[in-house]
Fold:
Amino acid sequence: MHLRPAATLLLLLLAPLQPARAADTFLDPAKIPQTLDQLWAGYDDFDRATPLEVEVLKEWDVDGVTCRVIRYQVGVFKGAPSRVAAFYAFPKGAQKLPAILDLHGGGQSASLDHVITSARRGYAGLSLNWGGNKLNFGRSGGEYDGPQTDWGNLDATHPPQRNKSNHFAGSLAPDDFTLDPVASPRNSNWFLVLVAARRALSVLERQPEVDPARIGVTGHSMGGKLTTNLAGIDPRVRASAPSCGGSGVVLKSQTDLPGCHKTEPDAFELACVSDNAYIPRIARPVLWVSPQNDFHAHIDNMAWNWRDVPDDLVRFSISPHFNHRHEDASEITRHLWFEEHLKGAFRMPRTPRLTLTLASPDGVPRVEVMPDAALPVRRVDVFYSADPHALTRFWRDAGAVKTDAGWTAACPVLDTAQPLFVHANVVYEMPAPQRDIPECIGTARHEEFILSSRVLSAAPAALQAAGVKATDAPSRLIDDGARGWHDWYLLNWGHPPLWTAATRKFKDPKWRGPDGATLEFDIRCPVDNTLVLTFTCNSWGAIQPGRPAVDYAVAVELAAATDFQTVSVRLADLVATDPKISAPLTDWRSVTEFSISPSGSVVRGGQVVKINGRPWPEPRALRNLRWTGGSP
Structure:
């Protein structure tokens, strides 16, 4: 039947009104959301109604793993589609596998290495390129020159590629690249990328290689925050493992909380953007993976904001002394987490129970740790500190002792006017079936993994009310070397000319350098080499807020010797590594980190000199790090 135009118009006028399109309900600019429920209202309808338009842009095989570059549509916003590219990989020919969604960090890009690793471990892996940087092939080398992430009329790239404003950290006010024309939580790029991550779950659900009931998510740094938020808002996430992100906000008005990174977010951010809105909604197993000194996921904020996540849902794996990276025994815990919750191939021990007792007959706080005995325990490390500045905090090892009931440790303090922070790491023996674990290339052997307790703290008023006494005393012996590099973090340890050992121990008043003192230590150097000593002052504004950090360094020439030899350094030996800084280092009080390496940079004659150290074979050993001379 053919209708004349007038008849067609009459039928349209008489037809019942259709409900608003799903996209309009979800993103109605006339309704600015004030809560998280309002922010995500209508999302499921939007997801069902909006085509994904998945494109396979490239496909190839690597040692039994099928790899693809794909791109999918997040949605159509302000009249133009937004599309995100990704790497997707799975064991060739496999069906109904568990899957892991990988969310990269700030300034990074999707990781081919990560999805190949997932595939080699028996998962389908999808790594989003939400930040919009050009895709690269990781260890395989080269860049992908085909279609990339294209946010259309929005800009959720990182760092921003077109918008002069950074809507990850800046204002929610509108501009040419925001979703809403007025201030709105939908103008936050965190929201846009979270929409892209939820749509990625829909992509995975539709792949024949994926079992939609077994999808996990992990991400690092900004990807860690996204992981936390995704786990809190999307029930399709079966298990999650945020890395170095998702610690949440602590308000400046919360003066009773010791430590913490405290801010003043506006109402929109606190209700709809911050991790605080999402953390209480997490209802599936979540593993917090982060080091003690992370700059992006403040450990004190995590301790407070995650305090009510039930123990049966959450575990923690905290790497000692690191910032924004993990030691192997902590990193591998993430793999075990997914093995348990996506495959049923492992059972993670329960979170170690930690008790902090302030009141004691001798005025020394004590810690008791009760680990789950489901697997053999190699050791228990109790860490504590009185430093409220978490990024430069040195975590002392209290020397836990095994008892019939568990492990105990004393935590003597120098000053009851300072707070007390404490947590424990239980180092478990890796079960034999999990010791040899596939990596992107080859297989790695893992002998142990770390499970951590919750982080507890006590404010000075609590210490004083409990009768805690200042029983500790300063020490000129900083490290006798009896526990190797236990109080240090190690970088590039497998690279003989580039290895670095660093410690924050000088920041602790117990080991702070006396005025005019000389630093000495004994080191074994089996070949002629150079040792660069670097003293970082005022890291993260810890000593002088608002002022930049400054490195002072000296290069010491060492002759080959079979026995230990002594290295000495005075304040007068040190020169700032920035030639523009002529001021000398006049005391040790501003030193927040000390490192040694065969390689580094020093200034000689006003010019930066790059020291390229020679290979320094293992084992590498240092002992009797100490202060000599100077005033008490």
Q: What stands out?
A: DSSP finds twelve helices and 34 strands in the chain. Residues 35 and 602 are 53 Å apart (CA to CA).
